[in-house]
Amino acid sequence: MKEYRFIAETPSAKIVVCLNYIKVSAKSLIPYENNNSLKIRCEQGCQNYNNKWSCPPHSPKYSVISKKFNNAYVFLFYCHLEQFSYIKTPYMKIRVANSILKSRSDKIIRQLEKESNGKMLANNSCRLCKECSCKTKESKCKKPSKLRFSMESVGLNVESIAMDFFDHKLLSYSKDNVPLYSSVVTTILTNEIIEEDKINELFLNMGIEFYLA
Ligand code: SF4
Hints:
The chain is α+β, with helices and mostly antiparallel strands and 213 residues long. It has one domain (4-212). The chain is 28% helix and 21% strand. It has a 6-stranded antiparallel sheet with strand order 4-5-3-2-1-6, with helices on both faces. A hairpin with a 4-residue loop joins strand 1 and strand 2 (14-25). The radius of gyration is 17 Å and the shape is globular. Iron/sulfur cluster binds at residues 52-54, 126, 128-129, 132-134, 141-143, 146-147. Pfam families: DUF2284.
């Protein structure tokens, strides 16, 4: 599998981000759907549960949302934390790395989604509004056309997908265990074929330095 890299420029440093992607059939992700364990994890461990329209119990199952699509393009973005030597604490290194990965991948994949008439499964819960109208008990989402569900929220086991498709272990952070790298995974469901040239062109048009590793 090819690995690409691009430079994420921040006010303090130029961070190298690694990118891998794979095309599979949309159906082939269905075995990674596990709504029971997800329900328990979200219900018991996440403050977004029932407080965001993008999250359970409001999010659809993957097997339902993927029905009208043939292809799934799964993207893995990651960056090594050693690049953040200018930041003092491990916790802040992770926060900055995650913020870079999530913002860049969201921007890139949303653009690719538009160009492929697809549907993005995002890397996080929806953050488009300051406060989700679900939390304030309004009757519906304020920006339904822009709302995207995350891979986790539709029931997908992202750890297993990263391992099986990219041989990439998602590492978690704890005080005693600072990971080597931070990662995000996101997907586009589409009926079109996204050629490699299209991705190259997209990066070029976005003014992002992009190269084969
Ligand atoms: S667009 Fe706004 S209202 Fe809709 S899910 Fe996202 S944060 Fe909530």
